[in-house]
Amino acid sequence: MSRPAKALIDLDALRHNVALANGLSPHSGTMAIVKANAYGHGAVAVARAIEEMVPAFGVACLEEALELREAGIAKPVCLMEGAFCPDEIAVAAEHDCWLSVVNREQLQALVAARLSRPVKAWLWVDSGMHRLGIRPEEIVDSHAALNASSNVADGIVLATHFACADELHNDFTRQQLSRLQAGMAGLPEQPKVPLSLANSAALLAWPECRADWNRPGIMLYGSSPFPQSHPEADKLQPVMTLVSSVIALRDVPVGESVGYAARWRAARPSRIATVAIGYGDGYPVHAPDGTPVLVKGQRCPLVGRVSMDMITVDVTQLSEVTLGDEVVLWGRGLSVNEVADSAGTISYELLTRMPRRVPRIYSA
Ligand SMILES: Cc1ncc(COP(=O)(O)O)c(C=O)c1O
User: Fold this and answer.
1) 95 phi-psi bin (left φ>0, alpha ψ -120 to 50, beta other)
2) CB 275 within 8 A of CB 316
3) Known catalytic membership, residue 6
4) N or C: lower Cβ tally within 10 Å for the chain?
5) Is residue 126 domain-shared with residue 248, that is, in the same domain?
6) pLDDT of 345
């Protein structure tokens, strides 16, 4: 393959991040979130690399779970939005998936299903995100209904999701926790109902949210959920490094423009490198002039609009640049958060929308 645009996936860094997640909450189970193709990193390769380190995986839909099963991943896989239609319930049970219950309709469908074996259920509570989940006042009845069903295995997990855990001074996380706890009054004391609360941000920064199951996603891939430095998040290692190389070089005189819409114009005699990466490779089309790009390890500014297959970078400051020199768009040496920030988006989006045409190259 000769096109130089590639996503280098560092599986050692992935394992380092998983170990960090496990270490933060050593008495919990880590459900590694591998939905959206493991945030663009390749779900099968990621799951294989960490299967020995985590007791379960979390995905968004049955198709994502079956992809893991077809690849031989045997650990439980939780469908975090539940079954999208009743037919999926039996398929999920057959493949030893854990099934979320996010509303009364899903609960009724699960209880009414004809299953060859019971499934493990996760009952989701809407504690303030107002996206999915039953109301806190419905916890006791819903739990009892699931508990009484022969379709449901022992150990129903009660789960909720935080809206603002990445905001370290926002009290809403504690409010969500209190609402959940209020709704839990009246649940059987024994056996204790297992809880799952924390995404990456909560796991890293809200110790009171570490529970029986944590559900880290973005941190496993080495991107901090926080805009600011954080003692634990700063230990994360980037897993994906998006690289390409210089495929053309030219001198652009003062006053000449570069790229579509002539967005950027040279204010000084400029050396411009054309790099084989574009929005067709997942590089953000809205990246403005000045977005950092590493050329031969040195930060240089993007100049001109991002094309489908190419970007242009001002390398005037570099003493020597030649065709074929390596360029890093994000990853090792340049955080994906910084690039996302510059382009007005978030690392989650940049990582998850990495298209298929960018080959993933796995190391270790
Ligand atoms: C229900 C649920 N749990 C956990 C996660 C993982 O979140 P993060 O990637 O912020 O750790 C997500 C991600 O969207 C989610 O929807």
Assistant:
1) alpha
2) no
3) no
4) N
5) no
6) 98
In the chain, which residues have pLDDT < 70? 1
In 3D, which of 151, 86, 80, 85 has the Cα closest to residue 120? 151
Instruction: Please identify, among 223, 257, 288, the residue that sits at the C-terminal boundary of a domain.
Output: 223
CA of 286 from ligand 1 middle (Å) equals 25
| Cis-peptide into 191, omega within 30 deg | yes
Which residue range(s) make up the domain with 298? 240-363
Q: Which helix (H) or strand (E) holds 3?
A: none
pLDDT at position 54 is 98
Catalytic residue among 35, 39, 283, 348: 35
CA-199 nearest atom, ligand 1: 11
Any residues with Cβ below 6 Å from ligand 1, and which? 33, 80, 161, 199-201, 215-219, 225
CA–CA separation, 256 vs 265, rounded Å?
5
pLDDT in tens, 249-305: 999 999 999 999 999 999 999 999 999 999 999 999 999 999 999 999 999 999 999
Which pLDDT score, from 0 to 100, does residue 190 have?
Answer: 87
